[in-house]
Batch of 4 targets.
Target 1
Amino acid sequence: MTLRHWELAGAEDDRLFSPNCWRVRMALAHKGLAAQTVPWRFTEKDAIAFSGQGLVPVIDDGGREVHDSWAIAEYLDERYPDRPLFDGAQARALALFFKHWVERNVHGAMFRVIVADLFASLHEKDRAYFRETREKRFGQTLEALGAGSHAALPALKATFDPVRPLLVAQPYVSGAAPAFADYLLFGPFQWARSVSPVRLLEPDDPMYAWRERMLDLFEGMPRATRGYPVWA
Amino acid sequence: MTLRHWELAGAEDDRLFSPNCWRVRMALAHKGLAAQTVPWRFTEKDAIAFSGQGLVPVIDDGGREVHDSWAIAEYLDERYPDRPLFDGAQARALALFFKHWVERNVHGAMFRVIVADLFASLHEKDRAYFRETREKRFGQTLEALGAGSHAALPALKATFDPVRPLLVAQPYVSGAAPAFADYLLFGPFQWARSVSPVRLLEPDDPMYAWRERMLDLFEGMPRATRGYPVWA
């Protein structure tokens, strides 16, 4: 039976930019599961109506539907216990904290840096939806947000301050090997990389070497996916 | 053999206010280890010179010296593997992130709220040291910091935003049972409680119920230690 993964795409079917879908893409690769990507756009609510809600990621695993990246991670560890995404109950609990921290700190800061490039990369049919929902969320026009993108970069870099000491002591956020917490933090980097050539990190930053390691995982799948190269 | 724990004390030997020492105090109780507290003041560097540095917590476990709260936690899990503080390698890695997050976000915000009460609770002989080191660190006089303490409370409460969703879903930061990550976050609350009657949390805040559960641990040891009651 086929495992299908509805993933947010931009103008091209293989411009996969959603940070939350990247969590699932990495988790599926971590498990060694082959998945069929179903490209999806924000306005294609009907295509995922079977999930009872309107956002991706959504997976269908041989007839079993699961949506929400966290629920999918928990489902995968239950259904496919080999190569766990969480190595215990505490790890799952602390990864949940990490998820909230990433969403509240990194996602917003990254959005401000890449917003103009992101908008330019959307499928034509998603632009009005994106403009309306994001301008409402941020209380500014996309153009006003985009004008601040250069100034937003130092704030983004500062959000990584509590992560850097870990990456000096160990290769991954999760320790000696990557796991779901790494995929949570990697999501916004692939969001950026898929739509923008902006240079986010300097090579002497421990975050830079970590991102390189992440791009090399799964035979380089994250690096090979459509996007801009990392400039050193 | 006796396990001794050098703990920072205020004017009274049993006013134990250091957030980092509270981590160790809770970790020792978690392990069911009896420890003898050695009250210590900032200026008693000679008393812990045997540790090769000048800060507490320091423990001496039957001749084995360990300092630094994180190193002590790792030592305790290695030496006393029952009732682990970390249930696996990922949990330890993510707790290290949590430690850095607590120190960078909660400690500074808490300090601004309690600074005047904290200074008033110090042993007389520590006051000049404390003033000099803290005024240098914050770039302001203690009086200027203290004047902003009321205004600093909303900022402190906002730092808990990424923690609250966890505490709605589960009783402790670490999941179903408390572990080292909980002690990391509880440290600054005991820092406040030991020196200040300030009302930090409202009863409808999920953080409030968590703090109540923490105060009840180990037969109520944290609540029974000298400090101010929590006002509801």
Target 2
Amino acid sequence: MAAEFWYEFASTYSYPAAMRVASLAEARGVSLVWRPFLLGPIFASQGWRDSPFNIYPAKGRYMWRDLQRICDALGLLLRRPEPFPQNSLLAARVALTLEGKERAEFSRQVYAAEFGEGLPIADRATIAALLPKLGLDPDAVLARAESEANKARLKAECARAAELGIIGAPSLVTDDGEVFWGNDRLEQGLDWAAGKRA
Amino acid sequence: MAAEFWYEFASTYSYPAAMRVASLAEARGVSLVWRPFLLGPIFASQGWRDSPFNIYPAKGRYMWRDLQRICDALGLLLRRPEPFPQNSLLAARVALTLEGKERAEFSRQVYAAEFGEGLPIADRATIAALLPKLGLDPDAVLARAESEANKARLKAECARAAELGIIGAPSLVTDDGEVFWGNDRLEQGLDWAAGKRA
């Protein structure tokens, strides 16, 4: 039993989801593939050139309050990075060069820096500082991340997300092609992946 | 302990919410006030002249599939009314003339007709046919619903919803002004209303 966890580093609700998803999947015996992608191309195809939370201020106010309650309940710090949303291109490229547990751990560290500490993950220095904690050499990883092959790979991931019908992040996608959008759908999506569908 | 349940008869996710909310509230000892309103004015203030599920087709496709899974899990029928969304003005006006359990029961019957059977609730005949089931006289109720006083009352309810920061339906609003948006937030909102906040 497997599921894909599609996430975007600029996405606020991907933060609590990234912190929760591994243990939820393990508890259900579901093996998880972490798939970083960019929502930008999907939003652009809907005519949005900015986060909908900025385009619609009332929606943004609601989201920040809702996220605060969610983080409070989980014991997660929440600090809004400036500007919001952060450019997540470099973080996504780096995550894509890592595999398995390294990718998951790097991704959680990016979210903790961005939304727990309010650090600018768009800055190369923020990303570079996370890599030694994983025993990785920042220069080597960043060079791989910015290779033409890896840039093309991320583009292909974004195209795949659109093809799957993903419209937001985080999204869980099951083997049989079901998409579950939102931090609040993780349990339902993983139950589905585990074969419990009612 | 009390909470307000704000709902819109054209709203798809308000359907399962309306069917679930009374028992969820009762189980927590929360008394519930049913507050029908119209999302139209709120959507218009965001520049939308149609349902976002129609404006953004990918979002619409996702929503119908998501709603199907939710209804399947709850044992609720789902049949899409045509056109979607239905004009919900008359249903909201009628609901507002009823009080307490009568309002709740009428509201559940509207949702069952609209999304369970796919009936056009914009049609006067559909609404009129529901009232005798509640022991009410359709002509008398419709006359009250369309009185100038009741029309003004519904307008005031819509203004109040915007003032509370409501951006979608269904929404639960607690005594201390917290807004919980979505069928998937009912439990969290009612827990909050019952004093369990973590």
Target 3
Amino acid sequence: MDRTNSIVDYMDCISCQKPSENELIYETQYWKVILAPDQSYLGRCYVTLKRHCGDLAELKREEWLDLAEIVKKIENSLKKSFGAAMFNWTCLMNDAYQNIPPNPHIHWHLKPRYNHKIEFAGLTFEDVEFGHHYARGTNREFSEEITQKVIEKIKENL
Amino acid sequence: MDRTNSIVDYMDCISCQKPSENELIYETQYWKVILAPDQSYLGRCYVTLKRHCGDLAELKREEWLDLAEIVKKIENSLKKSFGAAMFNWTCLMNDAYQNIPPNPHIHWHLKPRYNHKIEFAGLTFEDVEFGHHYARGTNREFSEEITQKVIEKIKENL
């Protein structure tokens, strides 16, 4: 049995769970776009494949093309919504390899980067590392109310 | 004039330069695959777009589909060549934003990750951060002879 598609893997996989309505930004046929809990980079999100698959080499043509449309749409919204200057896209999946056997599920990290201070919903954001690798070890979680404001803003500009 | 396609940008862009034969692994219609100078992760390479374009949102369908084939081919070779366990793909382009105006050129960083010690060409490699974010601030450059051995090995398994 192909482990990457077994029912056990599927059930154990947090990325296979249906996102709650209060974290989902939007979804397409193949991907879901979710606001990340850590908003150190305002508008940071995950773009997660809707089927359980753990290696980019196994992505299908239609999944790549759907991703291409998401990249356009979400980057455009983050520029309009918050003034993002550019974007860092990463597909890492390292944590999944802390388990034996590993059970990776393809998801992209999208970090909008900002070349100026941003004010949103009464909060201030500053990307002090702009022009350099993203910072790690930071964590900025919002109240439910602010989270919804961020999601609504991104949705408005999709 | 669209700055992302101006002749000045094109001439100023290091990623637009033709790679030397002793760093090129292979190329397709739209992308070139180049061995990265820093080999802290054995087989680390860049997958660079052959036209001057600075935002993934502007990639064309045929460029995404060509990338999809490269992902399959290069991951497969790195598994066969050196026993890579999984891969970190990132598209960052932060450094380009240290200049005003910025002049980014799409390139992917591919870091093969290893869950066991590797011996190659008399050298030893250990991915001590396996299962975690890639290490930064490391640099391991090879002699010309070793570089060529690495490239030849990857080419053999393409």
Target 4
Amino acid sequence: MIRYPDGREYKNSQTKKTYNKKGSEANRGMNLEDDINASNEWYRDQDVCVITKRPTPINIVKVDYSKGARITDAYFEKQSTTDYNGVYKGRYIDFEAKNTKSRTSFPFANIELHQIEHLERVLRHGGIAFFIIEFELKDEVYLIDAKYIIERYRNGPKKSLSYEEIKEKGILVERSYNPRLKYMDAVEKIYFSE
Amino acid sequence: MIRYPDGREYKNSQTKKTYNKKGSEANRGMNLEDDINASNEWYRDQDVCVITKRPTPINIVKVDYSKGARITDAYFEKQSTTDYNGVYKGRYIDFEAKNTKSRTSFPFANIELHQIEHLERVLRHGGIAFFIIEFELKDEVYLIDAKYIIERYRNGPKKSLSYEEIKEKGILVERSYNPRLKYMDAVEKIYFSE
């Protein structure tokens, strides 16, 4: 297993189809990123929307051309934006996915300032922006509008959001066989129904 | 200089500000990717739009944790989508940038089938999709709607677009000091004026 410097598991960005197909073994609940990636593949193949994960930026120091352009020295960079973006019904969608092992709150320390700034820009330009937050130990995933999180992040009063607050202001994302996370149902509900 | 297996120059995805600032040395016309990245930074800082380059996907084989998560074996993967996407006036924007050394035509061999398929999906979901094509030896850059290119790519009759055809169907992108490529002017003209 390959890990980032901060301990999170690294996934190669472009993997084989990972959503559940008839006959394949169940692979649900591996982790939030896997679940979102598999859901995005399913949504793409069902022609619901096109949402992709931005590959992890890597700074390359040395390449060995004698081995067919094999990278022999490089290091991870921080994503300067969020992890996911794409299009649904003509609208621009942009979000960040985060998980926490806390049962009681989501600490803002999990969010980088440049991600907040990126989402503020997206909102200024009329895009749809949100967070997907997983409470790992409760096995619950919430979708919550970025405006709400940004307001709290910028103005406090606390350096976290309580579980109750997220439950009240966000929408619980249903799990299913396909897609593993029905988060576009929540998007439809928040941003497209009136 | 680091190169991809196909010989193109590799750029680390997240570089320092590269657009022209007072007092900085002129760095125009380095190459198409540089020009677009610098223009995107300028557009972002001027609050015109948020368009970002997807980092180059890299498949990591080995990481040396004794050196602080240094990647010691990895290789380039092909982008499964296009290189650029983002938001302008609430709409989703997606495009691929290509250059050619030909003076007479743009060969479709420069485009990957999966890029065509990705752009077809984007169009189905109401996004704005185009190509930016540079004729290097003429120092001319055109923005041309993806629908037109896809139609020709899929149905022929030729395996290329002639320079005249691109000149007629596309829009010449003006160069300036900032942004280096005023391609959002062309976007505004094609997709937002009536």
